[in-house]
């Protein structure tokens, strides 16, 4: 496998169909370190993208931040302690009336999903930092291993 290297001005670049990195020198270790940094950046971007941060509720794609999930869990538990049976969740101007026990189960599943995604992201970051060849770095697929997105129906 040949990795195309070429000089552009005084900077070293490595390119495949989707990856450009710029290096200060043209030695392989400098290129490797630049590829690791670029892949780490892409992994972190992927982790916060809708490729990962998304679920479907009643046919609508959405995401709730950690802060929002914790806040909802607290609020809904307070509602439950007052013997309410339903809660109302708002998302982009739409309200969803959901039985409290169902809402708590959904939030628990969503939290476990987010934790699993976090673990996959951390595993990718760990693996990339340990790769030693340019070929391994160029061929690394950081989009694999994530759990299937959750789908909640309100039937």
How does this model look, in words?
Helix content is 46%, strand content 21%. The strands form three sheets. The chain has a three-stranded antiparallel sheet. A three-stranded mixed sheet has the order 5-4-8, with no helix packed on it. A two-stranded antiparallel ribbon has the order 6-7. Strand 2 and strand 3 (20-23) form a beta hairpin. The longest helix is centred in the C-terminal third of the chain and has 31 residues, at 100-130. It is elongated. With 155 residues, it is of the alpha+beta class. The chain has helices at residues 28-47, 66-81, 100-130, 134-138, and strands spanning 5-8, 11-15, 20-23, 55-57, 60-62, 86-91, 94-99, 151-152.
List keywords for this structure.
three-stranded antiparallel beta sheet, alpha+beta, elongated, 155 residues, 8 strands, three-stranded mixed beta sheet, 4 helices
Mean pLDDT: 86
Low-confidence stretches: 1-17
The N- and C-terminal alpha carbons lie at a distance of 53 Å
Kindly report the spatial arrangement of strands forming the biggest sheet. Answer: 1-2-3
Number of alpha- plus pi-helical segments: 4
Number of strands: 8
Q: Report the biggest beta sheet as strand number plus sense, adding barrel if it closes.
A: 3 strands, antiparallel
Task: Give the proportion of residues in helices.
Answer: 40-55%
Set down the secondary structure blueprint:
Elements: E1 5-8, E2 11-15, E3 20-23, H1 28-47, E4 55-57, E5 60-62, H2 66-81, E6 86-91, E7 94-99, H3 100-130, H4 134-138, E8 151-152
Parallel strand pairs: 4-8
Antiparallel strand pairs: 1-2, 2-3, 4-5, 6-7
Helix pairs in contact: 1-3, 2-3
């Amino acid at each position: 496998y040949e990795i195309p290297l070429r000089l552009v001005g005084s900077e070293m670049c490595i390119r495949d169909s989707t990856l450009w990195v710029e290096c200060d020198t043209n030695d392989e270790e400098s290129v490797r370190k630049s590829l690791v940094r670029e892949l780490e950046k892409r992994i972190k971007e992927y982790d916060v993208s809708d490729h990962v941060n998304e679920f479907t509720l009643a046919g609508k794609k959405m995401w709730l931040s950690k802060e929002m999930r914790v806040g909802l869990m607290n609020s809904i538990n307070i509602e439950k302690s007052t013997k309410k049976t339903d809660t109302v969740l708002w998302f982009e101007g739409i309200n969803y009336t959901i039985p409290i026990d169902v809402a708590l189960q959904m939030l628990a599943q969503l939290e476990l999903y987010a934790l699993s995604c976090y673990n996959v992201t951390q595993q990718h970051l760990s693996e990339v930092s340990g790769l030693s060849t340019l070929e391994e770095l160029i061929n690394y697929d950081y989009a694999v291993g994530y759990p299937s997105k959750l789908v909640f129906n309100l039937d």
